[in-house]
Structures are given as structure tokens and as C-alpha cells.
TrEMBL record:
The lineage of its organism: Bacteria, Pseudomonadati, Pseudomonadota, Gammaproteobacteria, Oceanospirillales. It comes from Marinomonas spartinae. This is Putative lyase. Residues 6-129 form the VOC domain. The keyword Lyase applies. Keywords: Lyase, Metal-binding. Pfam families: Glyoxalase. GO terms for molecular function: lyase activity; metal ion binding. The keyword Hydrolase does not apply.
Length: 129
């Protein structure tokens, strides 16, 4: 039987590796598992720990094409992070001059959430647990 136990990783291709590395590691606080430079591809691969089982793989490539549009482009719509204190996270992002949308409440679950963007305008969500 085909059975998935959890998401292992989400891969993100960034336009400016150092800016995105700082954002995900220093601002969002995701610990670095491993950083690899692949000379033959002129590409970095940075593995970041989200939880015991989940990771973000941050890639850099020379001249990657831009995302077609946001947020309704076909494909991945956004990446959501579970948090325990949404207000504290919003304040932290705002102290780093990261614009955050107004907090909303999910009409189906009653949980609070908001959106912000990474340095490449990838839509990110904070979902309060």
C-alpha cells in the first residue's frame, strides 16, 4: 500500500542566495543542517531544519526564471508554517521591516493566520496552532 508518513522537504529556488539564507536562517530562525556549493552547477544548496521531519531546501541557480504571478499562479500557492503565538511572530517580522498582512481567522477551523513574503516574494503563511 502506498502510504506517506510526512512531508520531507520543500524546495525553494531563490534569486539572491545570501539574502534568502539570512532571511530563512537569521530572521525565521531555521537552523542550518548542511550547506553545499556545487561548482559544476554554480549553485548552492542549503538544508534548513523546520522540525524533526521537515526541511526546506534553499537553492541558488544562475538566472532562474521569475515566478509567473502571485498568488494565483498554477502550482504551489504558498508555504504555511505552524506557530504557537501568532502575535509574537508578527511582531518579530515587523521589527525586521517585513510587511505582514492583517491577521485573519480561518472560517472553517477558527484558527488565526496571516501572510508575508520571502525575499523573492514567495507567499508564506503563519498558521496559529
Amino acid at each position: 500500500m502506498f502510504q506517506i508518513s510526512h512531508i520531507h522537504h520543500v524546495a525553494i529556488i531563490c534569486s539572491n542566495y545570501m539574502v534568502s539564507k539570512h532571511f530563512y536562517n537569521q530572521i525565521l530562525g531555521l537552523p542550518i543542517i548542511k550547506e553545499t556549493y556545487r561548482a559544476e552547477r554554480q549553485s548552492y544548496k542549503l538544508d534548513l531544519k523546520v522540525s524533526e521531519h521537515e526541511q526546506i531546501e534553499l537553492f541558488s541557480f544562475p538566472s532562474p526564471p521569475e515566478r509567473p504571478s502571485r498568488p494565483e499562479a498554477q502550482g504551489l500557492r504558498h508555504l504555511a508554517f505552524a506557530v504557537t503565538n501568532l502575535d509574537q511572530c508578527v511582531t518579530h517580522l515587523q521589527t525586521h521591516n517585513i510587511p505582514v498582512e492583517n491577521i485573519r481567522t480561518d472560517e472553517l477551523t477558527g484558527k488565526r493566520f496571516t501572510f508575508f513574503a520571502d525575499p523573492d516574494n514567495l507567499p508564506l503563511e503563519l498558521y496559529e496552532q
